[in-house]
Amino acid sequence: MKLKKLLKDLDVEVKGSREVEVTGLSSHSQFVFPGSLFIAKRGQAFDGTEFIPKAIETGAVAVLTDFYNPFLQGVVQIISSDVSRLEALLAQRYYGTEKNTLYLLGVTGTNGKTTTAYLIHHLLPKCGLMGTIETVIGKQKFPAQLTTADVVTNHKILREMQEAGLKSAIMEVTSHALDQNRVEGIPFETAIFTNLSQDHLDYHGTMGAYLQAKLKLVAQAKHTVYNADDPAFQGLEGMTYGINTPADLKAENVAFSLEGTTFDLHYKNRVVSLSSPLIGQYNVYNVLAAFAALLLKGESLVALQKKLLSFPGIPGRLERVPNERGLNIFVDFAHTPEALAKVLDTLQSVKEGRIITIFGCGGERDHGKRPLMAEAAERYSDQVIVTSDNPRGEDPLAICQEVATGLKREALIEVDRRAAIERGIFMAQKGDTVLIAGRGHEPFQKIGGSRVPFDDRVVASQISHLTVES
Q1: pLDDT, tens only, 369-395
Q2: Neighbours of 366 (CB within 10 A)
Q3: Could you tell me if 279 and 311 are in contact, meaning their C-beta atoms sit under 8 angstroms apart?
Q4: Exposed, middle or buried by CB within 10 Å (0-12, 13-18, 19+), for 249?
């Protein structure tokens, strides 16, 4: 596409020829190829303008930035005071998503985004998935690189989904993505809000700022679906779901076991009995959120009821690790105090023996939630083992010690995560439940600046002297 076509009617300053041919867009210098337009944004962690020389060396024919550099040679410079906004407009134009044909749903919230997204992807025919674990386009699956991709990648994926013949798509939308305009220009039909609890305060600073970032999704969507039981969403307009308060979709007679959950769904003077392979009350909310969004779209309640039975589950979300020890071993992504409490509360209600919880907290993240995680673990567990999570640049032992300040009983700390999992499994007896929390599906542990291969599911299976698909 000619640069002049890409920039048509846009109020930008251009230094150089508008006749150059643009063969791609990228905001990451490592993904620049000959003919690319490189978008140099300034972020919290990196300053994209520092990578302009590398992008030019790799073949960029144009750069978008917020200042003119008279010393740059052999490249067209596009200058804008709002690089993020212009990036979204260019992505729309280049990938043709201005003429979007997909029915787009976005789900946000502290917990439950991934499960709700996977449910919608399963329940809705010809639906693509843009998630924090993976992107799914038809039968193709691509591991996610970020919790929510950059805006250029998002528009590129939407174009690929349209070309693949998909009719709809569900996207997990994080507060970081909303705050950093990574979903700018994406025409959501429905915004789904799951819940709000303490997380990411290292980034947002306050719960108020965290909520406001989440609520940016409302402005981009035609419809809103939200949890009526969560006081954070009071005042929103849209379709509601809940268990404890009046709502458009309400669950009653909830019962669950280690095999799954059953409940009665009340919707428009109808009562339908649902059976889900997912365990726990928090997963009832996730099912309600998915059903609400799809009923709003016009899907059949009976069809959704039948398809729910075959839902295969989500990697690393209360995922069971088969073993021959007679133990109930689960791996879960719970990494907030509320999420950990909900998972353990669920396991408490169906347990046969003791509950042993192994968890840690990520480095360079919200320090305030560390003792709160310990409180939640101790409240519902017979034994707590504090270990390393993704320490990043922090001292793993120091993190564990900070977590342990939230414990009333004497702390059992084992910094080595493999040793901690081994200790938990070996101390468990037949009928006991072992929960390995915090990392879920993640195949790597982030230690220092390295990504070390480590999958809780695989490690737990190895320690149990069994093999499972990893």
Answers
A1: 999 999 999 999 999 999 999 999 999
A2: 17
A3: no
A4: buried
Measured between alpha carbons, how far is residue 412 from residues 27, 173, 408, 418, 424 in Å? 45, 36, 12, 15, 11
Angle, to 10 degrees, between the axis of helix 396-404 and the axis of helix 370-380?
60
Q: Report the interhelical angle of 83-95 vs 151-163 (nearest 10°).
A: 10
164-217 pLDDT tens trace: 999 999 999 987 888 787 888 899 999 999 988 756 555 556 767 777 777 888
Q: Which residues contact 162 (CB under 8 A, 6 or more apart)?
A: 96, 100, 101, 102
What residue has token string 């910094």?
A: 415
**pLDDT of 470 over the 50 cut:** no
Q: What percent of the chain has pLDDT over 70?
A: 96
> Are the beta carbons of 278 and 313 closer than 8 angstroms?
yes
pLDDT reported for residue 469? 41
Rounded to an integer, what distance in angstroms lies between the CA atom of residue 43 and that of residue 319? 35
Give the residue among 403, 313, 326 at the shortest CA–CA distance from 358: 403
Could you tell me which residues come within 8 angstroms of residue 468 by beta carbon, excluding any fewer than 6 positions away? 321, 322, 457, 458, 461
What is the distance between the alpha carbons of residues 459 and 232, in angstroms, rounded to a whole number? 38
3-state per-residue secondary structure call for the chain: CEHHHHCCCCCCEEECCCCCECCEEECCHHHCCCCEEEECCECCCCEHHHHHHHHHHHCCCEEEECCCCCCCCCCEEEECCCHHHHHHHHHHHHHCHHHCCCEEEEEECCCCHHHHHHHHHHHCCCEEEECCCEEEECCEEEECCCCCCCHHHHHHHHHHHHHCCCCEEEEECCHHHHHCCCCCCCCEEEEEECCCCCCCHHHHCCHHHHHHHHHHHHHHEEEEEEECCCHHHCCCCCEEEECCCCCCEEEEEEEEECCEEEEEEEECCEEEEEEECCCCHHHHHHHHHHHHHHHHHCCCHHHHHHHHCCCCCCCCCCEEECCCCCCEEEEECCCCHHHHHHHHHHHHHHCCCCEEEEECCCCCCCHHHHHHHHHHHHHHCCEEEECCCCCECCCHHHHHHHHHCCCCCCCCECCCHHHHHHHHHHHCCCCCEEEEECCCCCCEEEECCEEEECCHHHHHHHHCCCCCCC
Residue 1 CB contacts under 8 Å (≥ 6 apart), including other chains:
21, 22, 93, 94
Q: Mean pLDDT of all residues in the chain?
A: 92
Q: Rounded CA gap, 247 and 229, in Å? A: 9
How much is the pTM? 0.86
How confident is the model at residue 254, as a pLDDT? Answer: 96
